[in-house]
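Memo to structure team: turn this sequence into structure tokens by end of day. - J.P.
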Amino acid sequence: MALITRRGFLRAAAGGSAGVVATGGYAFGIEPGFLLELTSYRLTPRHWPAGLRLRIAVIADIHACEPWMSAHRVRSICLHVNALKPDVVVLLGDYVGGHMIVSGPVMPQAWGAALGVLRAPLGVYGVMGNHDLMHGALPDMPAEDGEPVRRALRNAGVRLLENDTLRVDKDGQAFWLVGLADQLMHSKAARGGAGFDDLPGCLAQVSDPAPVILLAHEPYIFPKAPAQVSLTLSGHTHGGQVRLPDFSRAWMSDRVKWSQTYGHFEDDGRHMIVSAGLGTSMMPVRLFRPPEIVTVELGGPMLVA
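Reply from structure team:
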């Protein structure tokens, strides 16, 4: 067996340290602040109307803050979304900054103006996220019950859905958009820490057999969604921000497993797609889970790209 010399050990240690520093620099400075991927899905859920083709663009977890997700970057991403020519754009919550490692806040009127460039023939719709109700533009700023976020979305031309249901027509065929209020945040009067979400109340507003697309910031609602919900679109998890290796799942707590939730899931004919989102929370770090825009093509052959 070969023995390592002191010089060889120091050289290997230096190389390892350099690798750690380089990886840390990439995860902290490059992937969260500069990369952007487009992830596309094609599927035809059960009971989806024959001939109804629908392209949805999904933006999740912006977490606007300087320098990682500036208003300029948000606007650039929105223009990229417009170039994809979606039929409808959905925003899945958490617009405000999620950590304090920043050079400054991006106020709601700034990121709202950036979102205002979004265009889609069937409209732009959004739901609230837990951070939007927890605090203001940064975690040390007051939430004001999320009113600055709601106002910014309205001014941007985004229709906010909080336990609201909307019937949308395309080419003579219909689908329902259901926007769920946040599942984690709750009023002080709520018993047992119940969230603001009310899926049964939303679905009671659905008055015909047209398929339902559910917008829910957190993916936790998916096991409770009935068969009439053809597709659930969620964010919140950021796909973990740091993608952990699959073999480590055996040692993960349930909370960590949920935090790694990402991509396309199917259960008994119901589909869910969870976006990795754009921004970061807790820490401005991403590793092997870059910011992404998601497109979903409904009514065509199944594809994940």
